[in-house]
Amino acid sequence: MPSIFANALAQLESAARQMKLPKEILAVLHQPQREVTAALPVTMDDGSQKIFSAYRVQYSNARGPYKGGIRFHPQVTLDEVRALAFWMAVKCAVAGIPFGGGKGGVMVDPKKLSAGELERLSRGYLRAFADVIGPERDVPAPDVGTNAQIMDWISDEYARVTGHAQPAVITGKSLDRGGSRGRETATGRGGFFILQQLAERLKLKPEKTRLIVQGFGNVGMHFTRLACRDGYRLIGIADSRASILAAPDRSLDYAVIANAKQDYGTVDPCRCTATKGKICRCPDHRHLTPDKLLTTDCDVLVLAALENQITKANAGKVKARIILELANGPTAPEADVILDRRHVTVVPDVIANAGGVVVSYFEWQQNRENVSWTESQIKQQLQPVMEKAFQEAWELSRQQRINLRAAAFQLALTRIAQSIQKKTA
Ligand code: NDP
User: pTM score > 0.90 for this model?
Assistant: First the structure.
């Protein structure tokens, strides 16, 4: 497995070279400010004890409290958490919100734990990191494998440890525990606002624009729902269990896919897996291997699942003219170079999936002011933030003839550098 943090550093160094970032600033940003690791003992339902490795990486607080999700996944590594924490610092700066970057993780498969075990693990996580977390210090949130219920347990445990409730310690909570309306849909919605911005600039007509979406979890599902509602043509979709492609000149029906996911846990509406030798006879779609779907002809390839999906091995075969990165780090740096050469427009993760952290910021503000905004207030405030981030990166990329990722990094690094210089002046 390539180092994801090495990918992140390659992006940092490339942007630093292009913009002539002062070397002292580059040196500061070359590693996290702080990394904390812990071994979390959890009593399992059968009375035995298991130890889980846990991390919190605080990359930069130059622009405000560290901010970033907690990932529960069996393959979480410190290297990955570092990279994700760095990208959070960049993302918050591009979006212009007053947060730094952080991230957490626990090496665990949450699907294999009972609710009780998951609660004990989540509370244990907070106790292990309570000294470094806080509303003005480091504000975690959900990520892959964690959800509002887990955020509620962590918020509650923080109140127990500190002796008073401070909901602003964590975002992505459930509504009745101080969560924000619109947080659940925020990342997918933000990505959809970006698609609209692209459509305007590249003169895309929704009914003629074919989308392939990899990932149908929180982010992929809400994005796909909004895009299909706006008339975009969904021609391919994948989750961890199936990759399906609409028959030529047909589109997939969002409602059919969403119902299949809800009823059977997979986007495959016929539930037949071509790989197991059964032949799918459905007239409207066929099954592909996961990698084949990524290189199938379409207009916009939406990556909403995992890191490192487009690599130097498949970048040359991508047929989409646009890649929208809703996942974090789905394109490896070597792949970026190949895509650039082939004039594929890549909207980087640090812009495309910023909707989640922007609404997290709104939740933090609401908690601090003890108010609750309506869903339409959230949507109205999210849209201009996403549009401004995209517009600034788009204009810089046109002015300097650089790609959107380089432009986003330059904007972010300029802002982070100014804050570092102010603090050290
Ligand atoms: P979820 O866990 O809700 O969804 C992940 C989706 O990816 C699932 O549909 C999963 O399949 C699918 N998937 C996993 N492995 C594969 C694979 N090999 N091929 C195809 N699909 C696969 O996560 P989120 O939607 O929350 O997050 C997705 C990405 O977006 C992550 O990179 C995350 O860091 C990033 N992100 C999320 C934010 C948020 O607000 N949630 C904010 C910013 C970024 P299955 O359904 O079968 O498990």
Answer: yes
